[in-house]
Design a protein that fits this description.
Helix content is about 50%, strand content about 20%. It has eight helices and nine strands. The protein has a six-stranded mixed sheet, with helices on both faces.
């Protein structure tokens, strides 16, 4: 089932970059685009988690327990952990408006306490109206990018939304990661302003490229899970194709930005250091890479 996510409007659009940009200015410039990408990733993670839950069996409740088939989901740290680690997002399950399971990675912020209640706006949009939600909410007093959708039961005497699935990322943690990434390229003050600006832009592009890599990994995991689910996972392959397409678009955008920076004469210091090496030394390194062991790659797990 395809969901139309109701989005809360974000801050202003990306404006022209000044010649000299401070780290807060870079945050402000890239945040609308970056938060949109995270929001899309969160919505895809919610879809993937629901497909994984339904592969376990029918979604139902038994007293105060949420079940997928015969599997009790209260306090689950297996199914949620699979999707959380693949996407870098936190995930929670709700029975009604009460949280019964939550798992998160360091990159997404802390997992939320079990037994806590969902945000009032989520309850209104997702539980009462039966609509999907995507936006920024204050969870435990901290702003989070959130995507959520109803968890539907379809058997027995109960039909309709019996709970919610939620994916989240602490925006303060994300901003800290960006600042750290930018700071690592700005340790020396002797470089020119042009070199510093190039390094900052490269750090941002590396971060977005990593988001694209995670999306590709998510799509690959989704295809594996869809294949395991058989007929139940057939429709979800469409979601996986969209994820793969989104990853390709993100990588294409990074390549285009790199091309523009080269046309502007902005090159990271790392590239200039490579060019400064003697020709014979660079050729020796290239030959070593060609004849050396194959590069390591990530292998997703279902």
């Amino acid at each position: 089932m395809a969901w139309n996510y109701h989005e809360r409007p974000g801050p202003g659009t990306l404006g022209p970059l000044a010649v000299e940009l401070s780290i807060p200015e870079i945050h402000k410039a890239i945040w609308p685009v970056l938060s949109q990408r995270v929001s899309e990733r969160a919505a895809s993670a919610v879809d993937l988690l629901e497909a994984l839950l339904r592969s376990e069996g029918q979604i139902r409740r038994r007293d105060h327990e949420l079940l997928a088939g015969d599997r009790v989901l209260n306090g689950d740290r297996d199914l949620l952990a699979r999707i959380s680690r693949a996407t870098g997002l936190g995930l929670s399950l709700y029975l009604g408006n009460r949280r019964v399971a939550s798992f998160s990675t360091l990159s997404a912020g802390a997992a939320h306490d079990l037994g806590g209640f969902a945000d009032a706006q989520l309850v209104e949009t997702v539980l009462r109206k039966g609509e999907a939600f995507r936006g920024v909410l204050a969870l435990d007093g901290r702003p989070h990018v959130v995507a959520s959708r109803p968890l539907l039961a379809g058997s027995g005497d109960e039909y309709g939304a019996i709970g919610m699935i939620e994916a989240f990322l602490d925006t303060d943690v994300l901003r800290s990661q960006i600042a750290t990434s930018l700071d690592e390229g700005l340790q020396t003050s002797e470089r020119s302003a042009t070199e510093q600006q190039a390094d900052r832009m490269e750090a941002v592009m590396v971060f977005i490229d990593d988001v694209a890599r995670r999306l590709q990994l998510l799509a690959l995991n989704g295809n594996i899970l869809a294949a395991q689910a058989g007929d139940h996972g057939r429709a979800f392959r469409v979601v996986c194709r969209e994820l793969s397409s989104l990853a390709d678009q993100a990588k294409g955008a990074v390549a285009e930005v790199r091309s523009l920076t080269e046309e502007m004469g902005l090159r990271p210091a790392s590239e200039e250091a490579d060019d400064s090496q003697p020709l014979q030394q660079r050729q020796g390194q290239e030959q070593g890479q060609q004849h050396g062991p194959a590069a390591a790659h990530e292998t997703p797990t279902a």
